[in-house]
Amino acid sequence: MSKINADKESNIFGALKLIEQLYLDGEIPGHVFRNILQEYKDDICVADFTCCKKDKPEREDSQCMV
């Protein structure tokens, strides 16, 4: 059973990395990307994902989850 769970987590992580690339390429807005990460935060560690674009200054009240 643990192999099935590991495969599922790997698939989710891979799919989220592809969605992250869409966000970084400007194909989807940041709020959409954050909502998708929020949906899957219980299944995988979202700390491995970029939440805010690097060219924007970081703010304490930012909506970033990481």
Distance between the termini: 30 Å
Q: Could you say which structural class the secondary elements and strand pairing correspond to?
A: mainly alpha
Number of strands: 0
| Number of DSSP helical runs | 2
Strand content: under 5%
**3D shape:** elongated
- Fraction of residues in H or I helices: 40-55%
Spans of 5+ residues with little confidence (pLDDT < 50)? 55-66
Average pLDDT metric: 78
Defining traits:
0% strand; single chain; 2 helices; mainly alpha; elongated; 66 residues
Short recap of the structure:
This protein is mostly helical and 66 residues long.
Describe what this molecule looks like in 3D.
The protein has 66 residues and is an all-alpha fold. The protein contains two helices and no strands. It has helices at 2-24, 30-40. It is elongated. The N and C termini lie far apart (30 Å).
Topology:
Layout: H1 2-24, H2 30-40
